[in-house]
# Entry
Amino acid sequence: MAEERKNVIDPFGTSVISDYSHLFEEFGIQSISTVINKITRPGRYLRRGIDFAHRDFDKWLKKPEAAMSGIKPSGEFHLGSKMTAEELIYFQKEFGAKVYYCIADIEAFADNGISLEDGREFAVGNVADLMALGLDMDNAYIYRQSEELRVLRLAYLFGKRVTLNTLKGLYGPRELGLYNSALIQSGDILSPELDGLKNVLVPIGADQDPHIRLTRDLSQKFKEEYGFLEPACIIHKFFRALNGDSKMSKRDPSTYLLLSDSESVARKKVMSAMTGGRATWGEQQKLGGEADKCVIYELCKFHFTDDDKRLKEIHERCVGGKIPCGSCKKDVFDNEILPAMRSHQEKRAQSLEKARKIVDGKTT
Amino acid sequence: MAEERKNVIDPFGTSVISDYSHLFEEFGIQSISTVINKITRPGRYLRRGIDFAHRDFDKWLKKPEAAMSGIKPSGEFHLGSKMTAEELIYFQKEFGAKVYYCIADIEAFADNGISLEDGREFAVGNVADLMALGLDMDNAYIYRQSEELRVLRLAYLFGKRVTLNTLKGLYGPRELGLYNSALIQSGDILSPELDGLKNVLVPIGADQDPHIRLTRDLSQKFKEEYGFLEPACIIHKFFRALNGDSKMSKRDPSTYLLLSDSESVARKKVMSAMTGGRATWGEQQKLGGEADKCVIYELCKFHFTDDDKRLKEIHERCVGGKIPCGSCKKDVFDNEILPAMRSHQEKRAQSLEKARKIVDGKTT
# Structure
């Protein structure tokens, strides 16, 4: 079994990727570095190397029609959901791409046993988060899988031209519900093309690459009927767990920040997060902190410090041994994280009513 | 592989059942004989032992709310499609059941590669046949799978609580498209229950029994969420191929009658059909014909001679050695089959326009 799954990156599981380099060889994704200098105003994830790879992103940039992603409505937005959402918003603002956002409630049932009703409630919060982060609803389409006939239909048709062996190769040995979730996700990704927007970009974490490979393959298998182009993707690194593990664990809330966390909960999580500090303050003054190993620095770099100059200051005071971790954490929490979370939570509260209407299909 | 599939009756394949008795033991279906005398006016299939078994038909008779079946839109109505249609119409007329009829266009794609567009065209003819046979459209609901969101959604949810091993046990080793077709069919069968009609009867051929077992199982696995009752079924014997084989072959049109066959084509098929005749006319006069082995007699019994007295005459002149097969065939074709086919084709032609509207969802 272990042998068989050697090359499987598991989007449904908890597998961890600490070394991204092998992905280039094994799966034929390309480095972002050759594309990045074609972009006038690269977003935070692009200019900081967090988006590290892509497929056909260069082609997409020539005609940036649609950007597509979604969420499994199984909880509140965490920093990973925020990352994807912000990428969509960037592509919408910077390139005028229409955003498609799927509430993957059928996958939430298949994978986590969350009922469609419960999924709908989670989705209201998720969509409010998306709006609070700045999505322009006038150039977006948000839908629940369970209500999207054309996607469900397409996914059943896909089942005709993919073998169980192929799915097993991509996802490991799974049950029907999970394999179907993958096909539905392919339908989601290709659905902008049903509206005539043939150039679709999907921002993903590296663990989601099997979905993109499957979807690109299916797009070509149904090219004759639907005229699909292969969707492009841009691939970001994971944001680590607050304790420094490679991936946060849903079972342990202290490993991740939720955008909905209260000030006291968030402060506690941040103050206990792993840093790049040395054994003693004396040693740290001498050698400097290891900012690039520090989750606090990563919080700034990925999420809360958009200003490059300010990020550089935080980095320098650390590696220069000028600030103890405790003081740095407090400063980062009070001046970077807390203001952002407060502002987000306010905007989110104001968006809830409209979000409910959108989720219920009463407006889009 | 052969071992593994011992108990598989294959609804997607061409397996043949010549001995029905083992089904009672293996699959726990019940004989129709104990139920039949509770029915005041049994239909042709019931009173002639063509409907030979059931599950919960007795329960259904206490509250006969809905009768459900469908067709894979892959060609014209043959005598098998006619049989199912007439059963539905009987349950509608005699018991007031609302008829649900599914155009299984997704299955036609998964199983036969027929596009949804082509399936729609076939469906127009199929629905016209159904109307010509006497379905009361005021108490019926006809839909295409590819347009029925609630069924497609339900089938994906079903995927969560059935294993690939269970499906393999029921259907043999198949690919995803076929397994999904089975789940969609379960959704079809349970869809009347979504309308509050909890007592559903499905008339089936014995090869379709795996679908019923799967559906009954799923109904109980989703009982908490949907309050499903187990659907009932009534099981008919196959009508044989015209050459006497146990099952007609789609690859060889001379083995079956289509309701749309021209007079000359139909006559040719009937005149070449297998009879229960003896080696010589002399022998036949002495021993009598074997009516119960004769496809011509079966055509009368199953399909074209509703009058029991007339059927008895046809049987007696045969077993009494009073008529050569050639003359009998001619008589049966001219006086039983041809008038019925002509009348059907006229009614069908008049129904086509309305059928198209129904298939296109413009009226139901």
Summary: Residues 1-8 of chain A have pLDDT under 50 and may be disordered. Chain A touches chain B at residues 106, 109-110, 113, 115-116, 146-147, 149, 152-153, 156-157, 159-160, 162-164, 167, 175-177, 179-180, 183-184, 225 (CB under 8 Å).
